[in-house]
Amino acid sequence: METKGQLPPEYIPPQQPQQQPGFTPQQPQVITQQYVVNQPYPTYGNQGYVVQQGYPVQNQIMYTGGQPNVVVTQPTSTVVVNQRPSDYLACSLLTCLFCFFPTGIVALVFSCNSKQASDRNDFIKGRSDGNIAKIFSIISLCIGLLGVIALVIFLIVYFVVILPSLNSYNNNYDNYNYNNY
User: Fold this and answer.
1) Residue ranges of the domains in the chain?
2) Positions of the region Disordered (predicted)?
């Protein structure tokens, strides 16, 4: 027990042993032992988490030779959290309304299937249906954009080429009829 006013003893580092002449130190050998502890984790209801069972494999490393040292690594718990896959519902709804509705409806069906699969924690099926919904949304968007581009080209050709030529034909026909009478 320390009394008031006394300082703790001073730290003196341990002395390293002096190497003797003619002595060659041995290289340390590494011995590795693996162990696995299987201990299940609890699941927490319908939160979209997938829990990995047990601890991962850890290494216990022991160095021998010279002075023996033991290094032990602590087991760490690893929990793999899968995020809920995207169902692309908004994208499929918008492409159904504004682009090309037949493939948009198919995209809506697959996005609803993806949402239902994710709700029951079937993330593989949810991801698969979500990707199919994304593909049909992209197809619907491309068809819609091609339709808009075709419509714009048609309107330009109609108003720039066809309508003026019809007007000139009507004017020429009218002039021809008036000149002959």
Assistant:
1) 29-40+48-82, 89-180
2) 1-25
